[in-house]
Amino acid sequence: MSRQIATIIGGHGFVGSALARHLSAAGWDCRLAGRDTAWPMKDQPLGHVFYCAGLTGDYLQRAADTVEAHVSLLVRVLQSSTWDSLVYLSSTRLYDGLSAGVRAEESTLLPVAPQVPRHLFDLTKLTGESLCHVLGQGRARVARLASVYDSPDDAQGFLPALLRQVAQAPRGATVTIDSSPQAARDYIHLPDVLRALVDIAQRGTQSVYNVATGENVRNDELAQLVGRLAGRTLVFRSDQVPAAPAVVDISRLQHEFGWRPARVETVIGPWLRDMAKAS
Description:
Elements: E1 5-9, H1 14-25, E2 29-33, E3 48-51, H2 63-78, E4 85-91, E5 103-104, H3 119-135, E6 140-145, E7 147-149, H4 158-168, E8 174-177, E9 184-185, E10 187-189, H5 190-203, E11 208-211, E12 217-218, H6 219-230, E13 233-236, E14 247-248, H7 251-257, H8 264-278
Parallel strand pairs: 1-2, 1-3, 3-4, 4-6, 5-14, 6-11, 7-10, 8-13
Antiparallel strand pairs: 9-12
Helix pairs in contact: 2-3, 6-8
């Protein structure tokens, strides 16, 4: 029996590199497309393509690179001749402009404005999504990822950075966090993301999927968890009250794949208890 083929674009990034390890461990023939790869490819089987290339925090400082990663490279990849499916990684940050508490479904209309610099990210991701619909021949799908984390050792991300600060402080200490207690995010654990991406590639029937927990966790809720399990006190430097985020609807993944992502407390609870024992 021949092995399934996966081609990963952006395979050296956080999600892409983890996906490569995950698929290789499952017996896939996993291929990482390098920066010097000539696209489009003709007559070379790509199998299931996972498009993980993209910019996040520095997208405004690297505007041209953002357009290349989110849009231009994708156009060339989609024009390749032999591939089974393509999963384009987008983001639930597209829902940030919605009213507080709104259920953000995959079909929800999104407010974007070209004159708002922050919307460069949204507009390029949405253009990439549109290209998947137009050029994807019914085989390209979009995965909108929430705030992905794996462990306290992650190089980026608010939650891993917070957990590192907690781990470095002695038991009973007060840890100051540069954020607001009312700020909230939907945190999704990396292993759940990897399973979802493979399901979408192999069995997906819809064009767009929200990959999230469907639950926003506020910073003050994290503080309660840290205090109860790790014995540290979190205080927040900002007293600003940010707008409450939309609630990401995950019913599509639930109905198609029986999606049951791990809750934040379930994942980080053991880490916090270990921190308490180590101090």
